[in-house]
Amino acid sequence: MVVNSVIRNAADPSRYVFHVVTDPMYLPTMQTPTSGAHVGLHSTTEYTFLNASYSPVIRQIETGKQELSLLHYLRFYLPENEDGLLWKPDTVLSAGLMTFYTTTRPLEKSWHVMGLGYNPSVSHEEIRKAVVLHFNGNMKPWLDVAMNQYKLLWTKYVDSDM
């Protein structure tokens, strides 16, 4: 949805590059034309550092004992990689760090509005000024329990022809 939103609202979509990593089960639904933007779509299975020897969550997924979203848990492993056991930081990040060295700037905090899946008091002004809307929480807009005041923010980018 973030990709669709950016492409639809961009003056020149060909200037945007996205690298999307998702669970393998979601890949087919994401393989749609992107109207000029460059989208690299990848499965979490392509990354060998994400394996069961390092993670009990991945072990549960691989044994089929629980249905879990790997990406949901990945954010918890990022801080745990300080010692480089999960993946080697010098091999994963060096190209990105070289590419963007001295050209990155911190984003204004108001550009990323979070809580649209649990916080009913996010103001329309905050949403209007935001660059990224984050539907984190249990009441995501694609669920029946979604908060109605935020649902249109999501549905206007859903391709109903799929």
What are its keywords?
two-stranded parallel ribbon, 162 residues, transferase, two-stranded parallel sheet, 4 strands, glycosyltransferase, globular, cell wall biogenesis/degradation, EC 2.4.1.-, GAUT
What report would you give on this structure?
The protein has 162 residues and is an alpha/beta fold. It has a domain at 107-156. The chain has eight helices and four strands. The chain has helices spanning 2-9, 27-30, 56-63, 70-77, 89-92, 94-100, 124-129, 148-155, and strands spanning 17-22, 38-43, 112-113, 132-133. The strands form two sheets. Strands 1-2 form a two-stranded parallel ribbon. It has a two-stranded parallel sheet with strand order 3-4. Strand 1 (17-22), helix 2 (27-30) and strand 2 (38-43) form a beta-alpha-beta unit. It starts with a helix and ends in a 7-residue tail after the last helix. The mean pLDDT is 74. Keywords: Cell wall biogenesis/degradation, Glycosyltransferase, Golgi apparatus, Transferase. It is a single-pass type II membrane protein. Pathway: Glycan metabolism; pectin biosynthesis.
Provide a brief overview of the structure:
The chain is an alpha/beta fold. The protein is built from 8 helices and 4 strands.
Query: Share of helix among residues?
Result: 25-40%
Strand content: 5-15%
First and last CA, distance: 14 Å
Mean pLDDT: 74
The secondary structure category is alpha/beta
What can be said about the biggest beta sheet? 2 strands, parallel
Secondary-structure element string: HEHEHHHHEHEH
Gyration radius from CA atoms, angstroms: 18 Å
